[in-house]
Amino acid sequence: MAENKGYMQRYAMLFGTYMGVFWISKFILFPVGLSVPFLLFLFMGLTLCVPFMGYYYARMYRNHVCGGGISFLHAWIFTVFMYIFAALLAAVAHYIYFRFIDHGYVLNTCETMVDTLAQSNMPGMDSYIATYQEALETARMLNPIDITLQMISSNVFWGSILAFPTALFVMRRKKDDAPAE
């Protein structure tokens, strides 16, 4: 790992930028998907692709930069850094959206959905509806920077968790480091 310390940050930034652009692209589908269910479904499907992208980029890093071998800790740190850089880039887009574009659209649409659910008079839904309405009231008190910080912390948290299985699948000993039989 000693020879790759300088490269780790560089490649984590590069692959994190690619992933951040992907996150921004799929984030565009979210507000539009609130009124077009297919696009919301596509957003969720693309979100499920994120761990596979993380694995692909970590494997590329292992094969092209680390000479085909990487330890668990090295792979985990690289993957966490990659998710952090992606989250930072996506945070810029999130802030711009919630500060200048949204004007309460997401919350109003969610509130309309909850009101429609409340009017359906489905049995046993009262506690869920009350919880949703309370969550919407709390969300209305957040300003764009609060929303952005919440989203970036969530992205980093889930990225660091996803980094564990990714590192387990990516780690590999170099062929010349393998014990002799």
UniProtKB/TrEMBL annotation:
TM region positions: 12-32, 38-58, 70-97, 151-171
UniProt superkingdom: Bacteria
InterPro entries, per the entry: DUF4199 (IPR025250)
One matching Pfam family: DUF4199
Key words of the record: Membrane, Transmembrane, Transmembrane helix
Protein name: DUF4199 domain-containing protein
Organism: Bacteroides muris (ex Fokt et al. 2023)
